[in-house]
Amino acid sequence: MFNIDEELKKLPDEPGVYMMKDKDGEIIYVGKAVSLKNRVRQYFQSSRNNPPKVNALIKHIYEFEYIIVDNEVEALILESNLIKKHRPKYNILLRDDKQYPYIKVTTNEKYPRVIKTRRVIKDGAKYFGPYPSVYAVNDTIDIIRNLYPIRTCNRDITKDMGKRRPCLNYYIGRCLGPCQGNVDEKKYMDMIDEIIMFLNGREDGLIKKIEEKMNKASKELDFENAARYRDQINSLKIILEKQKMVGSRIIDQDIIGMARGVEQVCIQVFFIRGGKIIGREHFIISDTFKEEKKDILSSFVKQFYLGTAYVPKEIFIEEEIDDMETISQWLSNKRGSKVTIRIPKRGEKSQLMGMVKKNAMDMMEQYGDRLLREKRKDEEALEQIKEALELEELPLRIEAYDISNISGVASVGSMVVFERGKPKKSDYRRFKIKSTTTPDDYRSMEEIVERRFRRGLEEKAMMEEKKISVQGFSIFPDLIMVDGGKGQVNAALKVLEKLDLSIPVCGLVKDDFHKTRGIIYDGREIRLDGNSTGFRLIYSIQEEAHRFAISYHRSLRGKKLFRSELDDVKGIGDKRKRELLKHFCTIDNIKNADIEELAKVKSMNRRVAEELYHHFRRDRSG
User: What is the SS3 assignment for 66?
Assistant: First the structure.
């Protein structure tokens, strides 16, 4: 048993990260401290002056853990990683896992390419970005490829040169064909240098360079190349007109502004590269406890730059945040050069911050109210389900199970999870049915429910022994939904009783048209108004469980899950194999059938039936 008072006495006076846990062992808050001893103790002292979030948090703390680190930067990194991994209930969470696209110039290869990537690694190539959307990357790469006939293939030029035919791009003039060994490497690298100049935002210098080439070609009466250079210049000028110059300093910057709504905040980020705005992105963050602006900005900066591979030279925010120097040091280490976090007071950056905040407010007005309405609708739906089933608590976490098979062959099960009315796809699970090869939905349901909760109990036991942290299976639902009627419900209840667990289970039944009809619960069928939010949530949960099971079934079929002794029989393809299994249910039944019985199966004929019949007899005699 965890004794908080005793454990508080053991806290070290060192920097580190602490994790607060609830009665189920789930991490509900992660924080960092210069002194773990002083910081953690503060939570359990007088609560009169605590903000609302801290008071709410304290009520649910049953135990805590801590990790000692060497310095504040290490604490900051560990804290951000743990928040991203566990997504604790009481932390400010950036609900965004975007991997921003970059443009990669493969200068680590002979005859480099220009490609799109979402991973930045130290491989000797040059990376440009991040770009706010994949469309921006695609447009830029299209412009480059229209301007320069560089290769797009992934061939190993050093090995393949002259050994294979060139691709179509070579024949239509979109590639010089270095794979044929007839390209001057210096000229090719001159093109790459110009592309890098373009991606670095030095279009003006590039235009002057191309103009010199155009004039030279014109003097030499090489009008074809002169016209090509002229078209390149025109394309670059169009690009320059589309980009907005926001300052005389040709450096990379991010401008971060914020707007507040009722229960959310919107944070807007403007990406400035080479002195030009190349795009923007917005993020909606829950603000139930009305956090201080500096705390929201601090959490955003840490979580946002933890998830992006590129850090600009300067970051502008609205006001000073805690640990600004520590964050700056961390980002400098990540970038490999000095990163400065600034608060604009006057001048062009102050005006730009005003524009960013105005855009954030506009996004808040567009999306904030809609998200709040969705949240209210989800709460209403859960309340309706609670009342219909006469549950004691709101079913904040719902797990739904479904079985998919073809006449019992290759049965699979799915588990989907909805938290607060929204799908939580990271907790979805799939199961291959092992206990039966015949069409037995009850047995299959028993198996997947038992495997899921037995695994959960094992994880809980390991958590108590401090061997693992919270895992997906260790979090139990408030309500279980199974696709089917009383039989499937009883199968699930049988398992829960065996494992000494008390979780309400309901069945989702469909009508003759395969539409959700109602809920089977406690031996009776409950109908909900088809237009109610509760019914619509139940319907979407049932459809999602079915979709997830079917998608798994199809993926396994594509991986030859149905490979069997039938695959070696001449004339038996996938269609006949499915029909045979559907008709006879098992391979043994097919083996024992006579020719007449085999020939009656849909899609079979007598010749194939005879071949199948004699195939199994030859095997036995051999």
Answer: strand
